[in-house]
Design goal:
The chain has 373 residues and is of the alpha/beta class. The chain is built from ten helices and 15 strands. Helices cover 28% and strands 18% of the residues. It has a seven-stranded parallel β-sheet with strand order 5-6-4-7-8-3-9.
Length: 373
């Protein structure tokens, strides 16, 4: 029996190698872990008019121009890429477009590849839109699916076939969404209107699917992006070099990024600093402690490289020449520094035995962005 006659209703797969049969009925092995889930029931909301973000500040000229351009595109039912540097205020830029759809009683999604960033965005939107129903959906949190605005991980988009009128994909180039054809299918199946792709490090292949691009090359506070400093060490003195940098930062809060869990565990043992990673059960507790300044130094994998904002944090990338640190991750990591108007500057150190191509490219890209006023 072949699968050439069967098309999966969830992921649209028609490849026979992913199609199996149970009691004579075909099913798709490619998305079997998803298609048992509960689907959303269509609901009509009757909203008040004039939904507006509850914010007490004005957008910068660059933000307002980007917001106006985005609104023009989505009104014309055109998808768009927003390529904005870390700290440019991408979330505020999409508010006007969100309000345009909500005020027409239409449904909007804010989709994000990673759960931690999803939680961060959800809390931000709840604060800025306190009078509308916002749902948060991720693995293990799927009880309340419907909302006027749905914030969800990209994995959960399979629950919403042809549901959203406008979809924002934040961190469009991030793992695990980027180049995952199954998740891309879920996304495309979930939206019947335009998509806004957001990132500070958008990949060139997105230009093949969307030619409408909005660039924002300045942070909202108009300070330059901090440029990373390369610090060379060797195998025998790298812990001492690390300690010297920490001492020079004079009790400031520091994030130390490591490329792997094994390296992080070893460094944590050598320094006695706490270490978090994706599967660490107490990671959220340590993130909150760090945000509340109850701990000074935190070692982390790439789980904190995107979407997270800390006040006046300094960054050290340990073993920065590791191949797992590509140009995008190094730029995103660097973007954790200087994000607040009361702390717009800071230090980023790339610690390595040599300067890799990714390190050189990341430094040059940051310098180039600073020169594009």
């Amino acid at each position: 029996m072949g699968g050439d006659f069967f098309v999966c209703p969830v992921c649209h797969n028609d490849n026979p190698k992913y199609i199996a049969f149970l009691n004579g009925k075909p099913y798709c092995r490619k998305c079997i872990t998803f298609n048992k889930g509960k689907k959303v029931i269509e609901t009509n909301y009757h909203l008040k008019n004039n939904i507006k973000a509850n914010i007490n500040y004005s957008l910068t000229l660059a933000q307002q121009n980007a917001s106006d351009s985005l609104l023009e595109y989505v009104k014309a039912n055109k998808s768009v890429i927003i390529n904005a540097v870390c700290g440019a205020g991408k979330t505020e830029i999409v508010y006007q477009a969100i309000e345009y759809f909500l005020n027409q009683n239409k449904k909007v999604a804010f989709a994000i590849p990673r759960k931690d960033v999803c939680l961060e965005i959800y809390n931000r939107l709840k604060n800025d839109y306190p009078k509308i129903k916002i749902s948060l959906v991720y693995g293990g949190n799927t009880t309340h699916l419907e909302g006027q605005l749905v914030v969800l991980t990209t994995h959960q988009l399979y629950r919403f076939p042809n549901y959203f009128d406008f979809l924002i994909l934040d961190e469009a180039d991030a793992f695990p969404y980027y180049q995952n054809d199954l998740l891309e299918t879920f996304l495309n199946n979930s939206v019947k209107g335009p998509i806004a792709y957001l990132s500070a490090t958008i990949k060139d292949d997105y230009l093949k699917i969307c030619t409408n691009v909005i660039y924002v090359n300045r942070r909202f506070h108009n300070y330059d992006l901090p440029v990373p400093k390369f610090i060379k060490y060797n195998y025998f003195n790298k812990i001492n070099v690390l300690k010297e940098i920490i001492f020079s930062l004079k009790r400031k809060q520091i994030l130390i990024f490591v490329p792997t869990i094994a390296i992080g565990l070893k460094l944590s043992y050598q320094t006695n600093y706490p270490f978090i990673y994706s599967s660490y059960k107490d990671k959220n507790l340590y993130i909150e402690k760090f945000k509340n300044k109850k701990i000074q130094i935190l070692i982390t994998t790439s789980i904190l490289e995107r979407g997270m904002t800390f006040f006046d944090v300094q960054v050290i990338v340990y073993e920065a020449n590791n191949s797992l640190f590509d140009i995008s991750s190094l730029i995103q990591i660097s973007g954790r520094v200087g994000r607040k108007i009361k702390a717009p500057t800071g230090n980023i150190y790339f610690l390595a035995t040599n300067k890799s191509k990714a390190m050189k490219d990341a430094i040059n890209e940051i310098i180039n962005k600073n020169n594009e006023k």
